[in-house]
Amino acid sequence: MHAYNRLPSSGQNSPQSPPSSPLSRSPRYRHRGSKSGRPPPKTLAQRLVWILLSVLLKRQGIFLFAPLLYIAGMLFYMGTVSFDVVPLIKPAPGSVYRSPQLYAKLRPEMDSDNSSADAISTIWKRSYKVGEWRPCINKSSEGLPESNGYIFVEANGGLNQQRTSICNAVAVAGYLNATLVIPNFHYHSIWRDPSKFGEIYDEEFFIKTLENDVRIVRTIPGYIIERFDYNMSNVHNFRIKAWSSIKYYTDTVLPKLLEEKIIRISPFANRLSFDAPPAVQRLRCLANYQALRFSDPISSLGETLVARMKKLSANNSGKYISVHLRFEEDMVAFSCCVYDGGNREKLDMDAARERGWKGKFTKRGKVIRPGAIRLNGKCPLTPLEVGLMLRGMGFDKSTSIYLASGKIYDSERYMAPLLEMFPLLQTKEMLASAEELAPFQNYSSRMAAIDYTVCLHSEVFVTTQGGNFPQFLLGHRRYLYGGHSRTIRPDKRKLALLFDNLNNGWKSFKRHMLNIRGHSDSKGIEIKRPNDSIYSFPCPDCMCKVNKTEDSRSSSSAT
């Protein structure tokens, strides 16, 4: 008895026989096969199609052939497109340097605008709430215990990076109860300044100010260095990781110091975390804001230039603006930004990059996108852009400006529009005679110290690029001016979009600039967060808040 078959019978197959092949049931194949008894051979095209279809039926095949099919389709489509007219791709807004065109458009309205108020006297609405913050660094009056040994550091970098090293070295030495040897300045191929500590800072004043907090000596005693054959390279050198905690120094450095009685740390820039205990922060404050002052020759010329700037600004009650402009050739080259100098600019920048950073920018696979750099606010502002920004903020041709800068790239061309907008602009080379500048001329750190002094005492400081110079000035100005930095720090991402927008009229452009100015005022007083630098944010570690009642009482008693 056979099993019940639910499939309809074809009348040819018995229940035990397998079903016939679909190909054998095809009338075409039955007809062809009737002559020979077997199917005819497949052609080459049929075989290829069959293989392709069988592979595509599998999941792996779909992923393998999908990209090939897509490319084939694109090639087919491109074959139907005419290349007589190539569609233009618009650059992203803000990615191209169009400031000269914007200046040409806005200049007539700018020159005829007489609506500006006395901008330099009214800019800091928040800073004139005097008495909010005052310096309050406590100095020790007690003697120091016996020293645990000597610490010798090498301060690398430019003027303000070296300043970081000095202040951190004071903090570490004081915390470890060690004697600090006056830091050695490491000569760098970029800054090329062989100046010693005493040629930039007042060494005697530095030692005297810190005498009750940290022992400081000019040289290592003979009986100590004799053990190392009078050769500092024989002294154990700690290569400390950047931003190390003070705990690392107590756990790792101190035991070696106690054993050897002298240790060396090289390099020492940024080798101490910004987040540190109050005892460390107090020593940093003391070193930066009280113990470090420039040497007499630098201070004397700096104060002379400040007096000359105030005299030139008599029409504004002696108030002037200082601008830190970073448009030197090496800065422009390092940024990889593109301006409007054409082929000559490209050749200059390629040569400068090869001189300063041989091979760094020409490595295989290195991709440089100048448009993206500009959009991200990383391009140095040109003198023209600084002028446009300040005129938009309400400063007119009667405003005196001090320009702190190195040698401006292609200065004759790039400085011309800034001088048109601000004819009272001055530099140290314009304010001082050749004889006055001669002792500092070939020393980049000493020249930077003169700029620092004139910028420190300006009513308004404008920073146009990051770096240690503006960061230290931010903190120092806060320390001097009741906690307010009195500094314009523009959002360069916004500026990139505004300088690229040729549809903007003068009134609209000015409104945007006044908003940036107002934001700088509101951000003038800022409290240090855990990972912020005490050299930029002295409140509250180096300054104390004073309420208005207490401040008015002290003011009235003083009178």
Automatic annotation (TrEMBL):
GO terms for biological process: fucose metabolic process. The keyword Metal-binding does not apply. One of its GO terms (molecular function) is glycosyltransferase activity. The keyword Transmembrane helix applies. Keywords: Carbohydrate metabolism, Fucose metabolism, Glycosyltransferase, Membrane, Transferase, Transmembrane, Transmembrane helix. The chain crosses the membrane at residues 62-83. InterPro entries: FucosylTrfase_pln (IPR024709), GDP-Fuc_O-FucTrfase (IPR019378). It comes from the Eukaryota. Residues 1-40 are annotated as: Disordered. It holds the Pfam family O-FucT. Belongs to the glycosyltransferase GT106 family. This is O-fucosyltransferase family protein. It comes from Perilla frutescens var. hirtella (Perilla citriodora).
